[in-house]
Sequence to fold (381 residues):
Amino acid sequence: MKTQILKSANKNLILSGLIIVLLLIGLTIQADNNESKSIKIALLLDTSNSMDGLIEQAKSQLWTIVNELAGASCDGKRPELQIALYEYGNDWLSPREGYIRQVTYLTKDLDLVSQKLFELRTNGGSEFCGQVIKTSLDQLDWNESHDDLKLIFIAGNEPFTQGGIDFHDACYRAKNKGIVVNTIFCGDFNEGVRTNWKKGAEITGGEYMSINQDCRTVYVSSPYDDRISELNSKLNDTYVSYGKTGYEKKQNQAAQDANATSIDKVNAVKRSVSKASHVYKNESWDLVDAAEQEDFEIAKVKEEELPAVMKGMNDDEKVKYVETKKKEREKIQKEIIELNTKREEYVKKQQTENSSETVLDDAMLKAIKTQAKSKNFKFEK
Fold:
């Protein structure tokens, strides 16, 4: 009798344990499904002497690429965008590191990416494609998620086989980590095939493309540009800097507005549109974005780390001030997005037949949209 009771008790314990395990698995799956996906892009740029045109295209087309990616969604949610930047093939870089430098880690800070792009300078050197791919795999936080879209874009014009790291090994390693390598040859398509750029992409199921790196970006002005530029200035006024780097980051925001304008006024308009989108987030230095984070408490921000206008406020006054700025920002962003819809319609009508020349943003966006389908990402247009 006692044996039967013990067996029954053990069965109940086992069943209870199984139920708990299944519940925990269900909760884990539900939590995973609730998490927003990410788009992680590492851009590896050849900065040897002949690549001035490539760098100019990267600077002038960053915001076009960002705006397209801002239209992405997955399972009804907007993904987080992170961009990393590497330069390689530059004699100013350390030969011990393979003439390779991590310019930025994977970051949401788009102002930082813009700043670093504008700081790039070309100089002759040796271009080691396999090594720069391997370095980006080793150094960046790609994470283990199979749902994120993880892409490497490498652009250059020398044989893909140069250097001591075999590109086959680097690309197969990327494939095993769920990272797609896309190759962009700056020059004749067939030459890129002959020098193994196509093979580098094929290993991971990526795209091989060739571009004319010396082709200049063509901009089309619209009647809406002046108003969007005006709204951009008002948008900047809604940023409430805090923390040790707050002032510096806010200054950099204005500096990157100026950098965008230095390329073309329309390029600055495109940056303004990016700043009105969900991918432009600065919670590390802006109180409005920080207040959106679940674990953020404004009462915990030290008095000395607040902007001058907020010093001396009590907690309720601080919350009210930030909320007011948030409402101002949302109103401005809404108008920018509405004006941009009209701007895009106008530009589409004004544009003549597209040039046959493929440039950096064309190549990148084609690959991104193709590869995003496998991860269930969709784009607005």
In short: The two ends are 72 Å apart (CA to CA). The chain has a mean pLDDT of 91.
